User: What shape does this take?
Amino acid sequence: MTGRAFADTNVLIYAALLDDPDKAAQAKSTLLVTHVLSVQVLNEFVSASIGKFGRTWPEVEADLALIDQAGFEIQPVTREVHDAAVELARRHHLHIYDACIVAAALEAGCDTLWSEDLQAGRQFGGLTVKNPFEVE
Assistant: This one.
C-alpha cells in the first residue's frame, strides 16, 4: 500500500463536535495525517451533527466547508465499493456500514483506517485498523 490513511466518522465527530478537549485534540492530530474520507463518512457526520448534537444547518454547512478546505480526498461509495462491502460484511461478520468504510478505504488504496468502532489491529488485506484514541 501507499502510506495513505482513511478516517472513520467518529474521528470527525470528536474533532468538531465532542466536548472532550483531550479526544478533540487527538482527533484533530489524527486528521492531520489523514488523506481520505468517504461520502458515507460525510453523510454520517451530517446525520450525527443534526440528530445527536442538535447543530443547525448553517453550523453543519460551516463544518463541511472546513472539511472541504482541509483538502481530503473524498472516496465515492460506488456500486463496486458496495459489492466489496457486502462481501466483507459476510466474510468478516461486519455491520454493512462498517464494511462500507473498510471497502472505501481499500478502494482508495489506504493502509491505515483510523476508527474507534472497529477492533484496533484488525487487518483487511493491506489495511490495518488503528484506534486514534489508544496509546501505542
The CA atoms of residues 85 and 99 lie 5 Å apart. The longest helix spans residues 79-92.
